[in-house]
Amino acid sequence: MPTDRTIVLEKARHRDNMVVTLRFEYDQQLIDRVKREAGARWSQTMGCWYVPEEQFDLHTFFEALKGMAYVDYSGLKKRNNKQPMPNPGAIKPRYNLKTIKSQVSPGVKEQIQSFKQWMEQKRYAANSVKTYIHQLEIFFGFHQDKTPETITDDDIMRFNSEFIMKNRLSATFQNQTVSALKQFYQFHYNRRIISEKIERPIKRKPLPKVFSKEDLEKFFSGITNAKHKMAMMLIYSCGLRRSELIQLKLKHLDSKRRLLSVIDSKGKKDRVVPISERLLSKIKEYYHAYQPKQYLIEGQTPGEPLTASSLQKIFKATLEKTGIKKVYTLHCLRHSFATHLLENGTDLRYIQELLGHKSSKTTEIYTHVSNRALQNIKNPFDDLKI
User: Fold this and answer.
1) What is the second-level CATH architecture of the domain 99-189?
2) Does the keyword Magnesium apply (predicted)?
């Protein structure tokens, strides 16, 4: 694959929103990649591809385009009269990922490969395998002068300060590195490499964003394509994750018992979700209209599932079309399902089962955003005779 392609990144204002523009010579492979990996859209007025600024992550973009194109991001740091100065902490210095990984010795590569095979045999999720291998290749590429046997806690802390912190990488990246190293050393050497003095960063625990019922009605009314509407309805009405919706097959639907089976979900768990009479009626209408072959929601090719990127594009396009200004994500539909159940009086234990949460503590987060629960709290200010 040629690597003489160049993508120039700049900031611009488009339809009263800040965006990152992607300018490059016409190349269908590049177009497919930036659309799939970055959710890029074409602007006829600007004559280029672009990504909304709040959805753009420079580090992720680099990784998606590595080996395929040179990314010139100098324009992201320029300031003009119309644009505010970007936050320096949001722009990560560029490092050559390909070079770092190439520094891993053949012996260590073999160890990483055998570790990968073990994870695959243990049926780790594909994304987990990919992430762990990625972290290990970067770590041992950084420590190219050392063998795994000689790595110490101090080496891990040096990687944290001289690579992760220096390049302003995320707390998630740091946690993933620690987790990958723990598993790697447990597998190969049956010992703990991470001592108590290796600090994991504190994870943010943001509250889930929830659609108001007014915004939900507006959202669903804005979808004219019956198949697209069915996909979004299933996510909300059954509290599905994006991957769960994509993997749903016709055989998972039991119309007589009004049940939907969610198979091999997160944590390798199955669960059953009840379907209301109204939703079942809409599913039947959709089925007769589209006649899916294998998957409940199929893409353009019969028998093949709808892709995650297509689902994301449908969601974003609907938000734009309906003029909903709040910043929602596709996962907010699942959050909204849980929160609205809680507000309707459903017991948390049942919500936990419906969502497939392993721990009740995960489900309890919805009590913090339940409008009904908050409104039932009596404010002591009301007792003051003023």
Assistant:
1) Orthogonal Bundle (1.10)
2) no
